[in-house]
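Thread: "does anyone have the structure for this chain?"

Original post by V.I.:
We have the sequence but no experimental structure in hand. Need at least a predicted one for the grant figures.
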Amino acid sequence: MPPLTPTTTTTTTIVGGANYPAELVAAVVRATEAAASACLPLVGSGDKNAVDELAVSAMREALALAPFDGTVVIGEGEKDEAPMLANGERLGTGDGPGVDIAVDPLDGTRLAAEDLPGAIAVIALAPRGSMFDPRDVFYMQKLIAGAAGIGVLDLRLPAAQNASLLADALEKPIDDLVVAVLDKPRHASMVTELRAAGARVRLVGEGDVSIAIAAATPGSGIDAVMGVGGTPEGVIAACAVRSLGGFMQGRMAPQSDAQRSAALAAGHDLGRVFSVEELVTSGRVLLVSTPVT
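Reply from O.Q.:
Generated one for you, tokens below.
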């Protein structure tokens, strides 16, 4: 399937809209825009959970009217004990195609609460049974790039080596390569390694999904994403990357002994590296995102 070019309304980006009926796409757009609009009274309030709750409530209400039979495979909120659309929740009117749903009503809750750029409301759909269900694992190590990374990058390689390989594939000097990394203590050594190799590191406070979309989009100013972020956001990112024809690999990355034990008990292979085609097995993906800030 050829890469799909994002299309943009006044504020909303749609990737893969041709994969589904126009009325279904319009309903999903209404849901992200409703979530984004609902947040606005509390943007800058400093209350992450309150602004997130507004987004969740508005998105749930709008998706209840969408013409599909949907099941939430990727919800958000559990790892942060925040408001959430729960995994397994049924949404839609029940008419139309059966779909898996991945949602983040507010990706970048702190950004919205502090009125900083980068918060979005986002929904991804794919045919039922096609999204990887990362149940009981809240964090994922990710490596994301555009099409130039296909057949070149490998999550099992050191970060600096991947940066060098990608720079060569893009035919640019490594000191022009921009790698986005979440600004977390767990990434300190990787950031040092990348900078020592000559790559430019863009530290991002929050917004796993936004930077993933950027990395898979040529000309965005971000060439790659590396590091550990949320697993729900990782599967949503995979939907976008697959539709955009980019490269992505992921590996489960529990951040505590308790998380590791839960992951193993759930049957996850923590050494397995997933391709983007394993994270979302169908190319019939729809992703819609609306900026909040």
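V.I.: this helps a lot. The radius of gyration is 18 Å.
O.Q.: and The CA atoms of residues 148 and 169 lie 6 Å apart.
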